[in-house]
TrEMBL record:
It comes from Dioscorea zingiberensis. The chain crosses the membrane at residues 12-32, 210-230. It is found in: Membrane. It is a single-pass membrane protein. The lineage of its organism: Eukaryota, Viridiplantae, Streptophyta, Embryophyta, Tracheophyta. The keyword Membrane applies. One of its GO terms (cellular component) is Golgi membrane. The keyword Membrane applies. Keywords: Membrane, Signal, Transmembrane, Transmembrane helix. This is Autophagy-related protein 27.
Length: 287
């Protein structure tokens, strides 16, 4: 098969690192597990990271309900909600006269992340109070990040904008499900639960944890390894180069140890080539 022109090969090879960077930047949001359920913020030299959907001990789905929804019933009001995703009802679905903004009467509860049912004249009328796309996570107390987070969801309706705020307090030992419901205004609700997923992972830049330098080094090594892999695949399949020669810039990588040793030897000779009084160690000897 004919080989590509040298100019086009050089251009394509030079573009490989940029394509790799674009690929990594584009895929990170898609590959990150529970990205919409994450919150990270820096306080001083400490990074606090909350990942509500990441598995913890005894909770493989994090704070997300394994049933597909949480349910709270207080007087004539019933609240269903799920964190960071739409609800799933394999049993006990909402039975509503209306299901505005959350799937309609036939699929009620499956098109939103929070739904409230209120009794009006003997009819259960449901209204969406949260959508997964309209979710904000904030610390309960920025001065005490270990306290937990508040997950707020919003649903834009024809008559009013409704919301649900769930305070997830950090409790590393046990789970206390939500069993209370506060009504704030016309259709704004709030509830509280305790869960290990409300506890942040702490990364300190002062010697505790990995630190920023190690994190940056890890990212650099991953990008470098990806560049070598992408370049090798490109040269092997598209340029027909086989063997170790398929590794991009092989001569450069092989010469790095020799260059480093030469530089180190030069520095050693420079520092050892002078005595403390400014004269060389190899001074003239008179006989």
């Amino acid at each position: 098969m004919p080989l590509p022109a040298r100019g086009s090969v050089t251009t394509a090879a030079a573009a490989v690192p940029w394509l790799l960077v674009a690929l990594v930047v584009g895929l990170v949001p898609l590959l990150a597990d529970g990205t919409s359920c994450d919150l990270s913020f820096l306080r001083g030299s400490t990074l606090y990271n909350y990942s509500l959907a990441s598995p913890t001990k005894n909770h493989p789905h994090g704070v997300l309900s394994e049933d597909g929804f949480y349910k709270i019933a207080v007087n004539d009001t019933i609240l269903w909600f799920q964190f960071c995703d739409s609800m799933v009802f394999n049993h006990d679905p909402p039975r509503c006269f209306d299901c505005q903004g959350c799937g309609g009467p036939s699929r009620c509860g499956t098109a939103c992340s929070a739904l409230v049912s209120n009794d009006f004249g003997g009819y259960s009328v449901c209204t969406a109070v949260g959508q997964p796309s309209n979710m904000v996570i904030t610390p309960i107390d920025e001065n005490n990040p270990q306290k937990g987070v508040i997950v707020t969801t919003l649903a834009v309706g024809l008559k009013a904008n409704c919301s649900l705020a769930v305070s997830v307090f950090c409790d590393r030992n046990e789970v206390q499900p939500a069993n209370s419901l506060d009504t704030l205004g016309e259709c704004n609700y709030a509830t509280v639960l305790r869960h290990p997923s409300g506890c942040p992972k702490v990364i300190s830049a002062n010697g505790g944890g990995w630190g920023w330098f190690s994190i940056l080094m890890t990212i650099f090594l991953c990008l470098f390894g990806g560049y070598l892999l992408a370049g090798t695949v490109y040269r092997f399949f598209f340029l027909g180069i086989h063997g170790v020669e398929a590794i991009p810039n092989l001569e450069l990588w092989l010469s790095l140890p020799q260059r480093a040793w030469s530089m180190m030897s030069s520095l050693i000779r420079r520092f050892r080539g002078h005595s403390p009084d400014g004269q060389g160690y190899y001074s003239r000897v008179n006989f």
